[in-house]
Amino acid sequence: MCSPSTDSKRVQVAALDPSTFARHRIHTMERDWAETNCYTDVMIEMLHGFGFEPAAMLAFTLAVDFEGDQWTFFKPPHADLEALYGFAIEELAVWRPLAQHIEEQVALGRPLLVELDSFYLPDTAGTAYRRVHQKSGVAVNAIDTCRRQLGYFHNQGYYALDGDDFRDVFQLDGRVHERMLPPYVEYLKWVPGFRAPRGGELVEVSQALLRRHAARIPRANPFPRFKERFAEDLAWLLAADLDRFHAYSFATFRQYGACFELAATYLRWLEEQDVPGLGTSIDAIEQVSHATKAYQFQLARAMARKKPLELAALDDMAAHWERGMGALTSRFA
User: Which pTM was predicted?
Assistant: First the structure.
């Protein structure tokens, strides 16, 4: 037993302070999509916080596809993370209180990727915090179970919670608000003796992954298939409410728009490392992102006014995709 007011049992992976933590430039530069999806955003900031360059992992963004009723939920493959940064991601079996698992694994130097309820995450103030119960992935870097403090990566930065938020997010002191299934939890296990590539070696490893992912770029342009499905969905979507719009948009427009913006960021990072000949692909893929952001707003206005929406913008996106991916596959695949 310990007292939150007098005792401390703090463990952490990296010595980070939420008040001084500087986001990675991916989350500070002016962008079409301030956030992508919770997993990828968390991974970007966690890698940055541990001293790695997260842009090097983004080759996987080039291979996303339209999957029938949604676009690929893009996440960095585990094999890529191990090759670049030297850790494996393993699933954690949750068989005792979650805070105890986190304390033990963090003490072993292993950050945890865990789904928590945004209702108790203070960094979501203005959206979900104390307003909406919804799961969101975070990466835990530090925990003090006595003082009830948590240091975690989430969305675009590194944050802390304590007190009632700690008690409620882990449902301590009998504060069970609703029946919950155990969350899905992963931990990072560092590869013994791994030396993370830096500088030119990092660029070489990243380009090797680029060649592998370029070979996975869809053979057929995914935008004509998406246009056909979207035309079918539009009939009911124009009569739907705002919540339905957000759910649909997240699975489609935001998913591929944010992904292609990251793809352009990746290629621009390679260009900064003196990899030549990427300008055509960068420009084309950025155009997909820009056009998607604008089209998402057009859809929202069409739904509000119950007015038809032209589909020609999807043809433009298809042309940009063809130009950008064609240049990449001819060179790298």
Answer: 0.93
